[in-house]
Write a structure and sequence with these properties.
GO terms for molecular function: cadmium ion transmembrane transporter activity; manganese ion transmembrane transporter activity. Helix 6 (about 120-140) crosses helix 13 and helix 7 (about 140-170) runs parallel beside helix 11. The chain is mainly α. The chain has a single domain (about 15-404), classed as Amino acid/polyamine transporter I (Up-down Bundle). The chain has helices spanning about 10-25, 30-45, 45-70, 75-85, 85-120, 120-140, 140-170, 170-180, 190-200, 205-215, 225-255, 265-270, 275-300, 310, 315-330, 335-360, 365, 375-395, 395-404. Mean pLDDT is about 85; it is low at about 1-5.
């Protein structure tokens, strides 16, 4: 445990919390809100079981990834390439594809946010969001602004959903019981892989870790801070999802009928009245914008290993990434379906990326004399197996969702 008490500089501390909330707000975005609402409506109190299992998997995935990358001081794709030549490049391609799919959903969520606030067409709102996100990356200190904004947005979203959950008066006893004893646990495979994908799947697993590496928070001496950051990130998303689950459960028990075109907005409207829709719209828009930024930033970081041009023109790559995802959504539409499918796709990527990190944890050429705890290794292996099996079994459900 040597060096665990070492203090971070003010700059590192800001970036440390920036890493926590970059991960949290990337996952607590429009996909997160839509997935949780849709699945709670479908499974009612039993959805608590899926949340519990997903949190356990999230801890196993996140902690392993953040610890190994921080000790090595290298980004995910570089570590994977050292595990097996070419593996990192393959994973980078998967991450970029997954991040792109997720970003289409993020842009869609922003469009839904504008629709809730002003009643504008979803595609117009999405286009405005894309333009605004691009402007942020044209600003010289855009990354510092991103850190501050994501922290504020994370706290804001939790406080608002907490208030809605209190107002909706859910049956806490039933929710707790069904979280342990669900009515049909096998039916939870698609929800589990989807919400895991939305929380730590694809690029999201690496968002905070890559930010820590950029901050210089690496090596064994910083493991205490890295572990704390990883735990804070998972706790933040777990609390937020639980609160939203309870809020939806409460309004459904009171007879609310959710709008299939914008399910989360229906929850806020039923609980808070007409002002609830606008409050939700502001939160959704802010969450979507931060998620667009997080997806683009992290996905572009995976392209840096493909050559100096990607590293030198990183900001231009990020801007192109945002522009392309915005254009695709504007022509495809179907925002609610896209938000759910994006999380599920990222969940399918997780077993591959996590397996590579676990192999890296046993290679001294990558982690030096660091001894990765066996308990965390076992935890990670279980997460790989569960997500791989659930992902394969959920493919049929994904096809039905898209075709339906």
């Amino acid at each position: 445990m040597q060096g665990e008490k070492q203090k971070l500089t003010a700059s590192q501390r800001r970036l440390l919390f920036g890493a926590v909330f970059l991960m949290a707000t990337s996952s607590i975005g429009p996909a997160f809100l839509t997935q949780t609402t849709v699945f709670t409506e479908q499974f009612l109190a039993s959805f608590g079981f899926a949340i519990l299992i997903s949190i356990i998997i999230d801890i196993g995935a996140q902690s392993n990834v953040w610890r190994v990358l921080s000790v090595s001081g290298k980004r995910g794709q570089d570590v994977a390439n050292e595990v097996f030549p070419g593996l990192g490049s393959f994973i980078a391609i998967l991450i970029v594809i997954g991040g792109f799919a997720f970003n289409i959903g993020n842009v869609a969520g922003a469009g839904l946010g504008f629709n809730a606030i002003f009643g504008w067409d979803v595609r117009i709102g999405a286009a405005i969001t894309g333009i605004f996100a691009i402007i942020i990356f044209l600003i010289k200190n855009g990354r510092a602004v991103m850190d501050i904004v994501t922290q504020g947005l994370g706290i804001l979203m939790i406080l608002i959903v907490l208030y809605v959950a209190i107002e909706s008066k859910p049956d806490i006893g039933e929710a707790a019981f069904r979280t342990i004893v669900p009515e049909d646990p096998l039916s939870m495979l698609l929800p589990i892989v989807t919400i895991v994908g939305g929380t730590v799947g694809g690029y999201i697993t690496f968002a905070g870790a890559h930010r820590l590496i950029e901050a210089g928070v690496t090596g064994k001496e910083n493991l205490h801070f890295v572990s704390k950051a990883a735990n804070y990130g998972i706790i933040t998303t777990g609390v937020m999802r639980t609160l939203l689950f309870l809020a939806v459960l409460g309004v459904l028990a009171q007879g609310a009928v959710l709008d299939p075109d914008n399910p989360p907005a229906s929850v806020f409207q039923f609980a808070l009245g007409d002002i609830g829709v606008k409050v939700f719209g502001v939160v959704l828009l802010a969450a979507a914008l931060s998620s667009v930024i997080g997806a683009a930033y992290t996905s572009a970081s995976f392209l840096r290993g493909f050559g100096k041009v990607f590293d030198k023109h990183n900001n231009l790559i990020i801007i192109a990434f945002i522009l392309a995802s915005t254009i695709v959504f504007v022509f495809i539409g179907r925002p609610v379906t896209l938000l759910i499918l994006a999380g599920a796709f990222n969940g399918l990527i997780l077993p591959v990326t996590l397996a590579a990190i676990l192999l890296a944890s046993r290679k001294k050429s990558i982690v030096g004399d660091y001894q990765h705890p066996t308990a965390w290794l076992i935890f990670g292996v279980i997460a790989v197996i569960v997500t791989a099996v659930a992902g394969v079994l959920s493919l049929e459900g994904l096809a039905q969702l898209w075709n339906g």
